[in-house]
Amino acid sequence: MKKKIVLAILFILPVVVYLFFASGVNNFGRLPILVENVPDISEIDESVSLKDKITVLGFLGKQVDDRQGNAFNLNQKIYKRFGEFNDFQLVMVVTDGSEEQVENLKKELGKLSNIDKWRFAYGSEEAIQSYFNGMKTDIELDQTLATPFVFIVDKDLNLRGRNDDEEDGVKFGFDTSSVAELNNKMVDDIKIILAEYRLALKKNNADRSK
Hints:
InterPro entries: Thioredoxin-like_sf (IPR036249). Helices cover 43% and strands 20% of the residues.
């Protein structure tokens, strides 16, 4: 009997420990709101909106070709994992005149996955910079109106992130040039926000059935 108990502990304990760390400690709470009422991207491009979607928002600027590596990392580590959710989307902001570069990127991404939830919002350089300033993060766009960082925006246009990150303290965005950061941090945080909405939906359905 003792032998069976010992074997059970040796088998179960590592699994429990793995699941705990794999899910991330943050999964036991809500993902913090860092900025409320982020402007809707429809202010720049009427064909795209963040409202009522869980959005990964990025800025590729005017040299989209130079950012293909970042887009591929994001596609492989984030989009492939969460793109199946109906209320999830990935929005990239680019400058007017970047249509050909965007089509090239979409063609390359399409070789790796279905890209029906990749959206591209076009705007002038001035409009993009003004919009980004309105997000009120500690990150800046470079001279091409781009950044390797992407942001999580919830359905109510709140920017979500971490307020106690072990490296950055307050973490507004996630670096797409770092596969480790996407794997170890961003995946966990998107899991949290998706779980929030699933729980809220279950609660609403339960309340209606009373």
